[in-house]
Design brief:
- By secondary structure, the protein is an alpha+beta fold.
- The chain folds into 2 domains: 34 residues; 129 residues, no CATH class.
- The protein contains 3 helices and 9 strands.
- The strands form 2 sheets. Strands 4-3-2-1-9-8-7 form a 7-stranded antiparallel beta sheet, covered by helices on one side. A two-stranded antiparallel sheet has the order 5-6.
- The longest helix has 28 residues.
- The radius of gyration is 24 Å and the shape is elongated.
């Protein structure tokens, strides 16, 4: 017995529906896996000024006497407002810090809340403006930070950013790996 035309058209319709659903799921998956927006343009200038608006992407490692924290960050500077998104890994939610450039950045904010209870360390605060100058490779006056040492590593002489910046005190060592800078 031959199937009816109605039956054949419904079967074809079901196949197309499944193909559309698979296509939507795959396209949603692949677009959600991108870590930075395609709208960000690479930084075009040869020098990053603290007065410029820019975005910076990188990783960090905070080493303390009895523990270690690692993660990634995305820093966006717009005029005098600094937005720092800090994440421990890409599966957990990020913590967002909104700071004015004249405020102080508390290094404790880079530590997970569960580890803050275990550690009885009071880590230093760094002025946000000085912190940004340090990680983009500028020299600052370290006299207001008693035991802070800063080390910078550049991959090439013509690099815009230092590839690695280390802030070291007696209580901690914060290592920042700069990946990309955007306009």
């Amino acid at each position: 017995m031959k199937p009816s035309i109605f039956y054949l058209s419904m079967e074809n319709y079901n196949k197309k529906s499944y193909q559309l659903i698979y296509f939507l799921i795959f396209s949603l998956f692949f677009t959600s896996c991108s870590s930075t927006s395609g709208l960000l343009k690479p930084y075009q200038n040869n020098y990053i000024d603290i007065a410029d608006n820019f975005s910076l992407e990188g990783k960090f490692k905070l080493s303390m006497p009895d523990s270690k924290e690692t993660g990634y960050f995305f820093l966006k500077k717009t005029r005098d407002l600094i937005q720092i998104n800090v994440g421990k890994n890409y599966l957990l939610p990020e913590e967002e810090l909104l700071l004015d450039i004249r405020e102080d950045l508390d290094i404790n904010k880079l530590i997970l809340k569960t580890n803050q209870d275990k550690l009885d360390l009071r880590l230093n605060s760094v002025n946000v403006s000085d912190f940004i100058r340090i990680i983009i490779g500028h020299e600052i006056d370290l006299s207001s930070y008693s035991d802070l040492e800063v080390f910078r590593d550049f991959n090439k002489k013509d690099d815009l950013l230092p590839s690695k910046v280390r802030l070291k005190t007696t209580n901690y060592e914060l290592t920042i790996l700069n990946k990309k800078v955007y306009e």
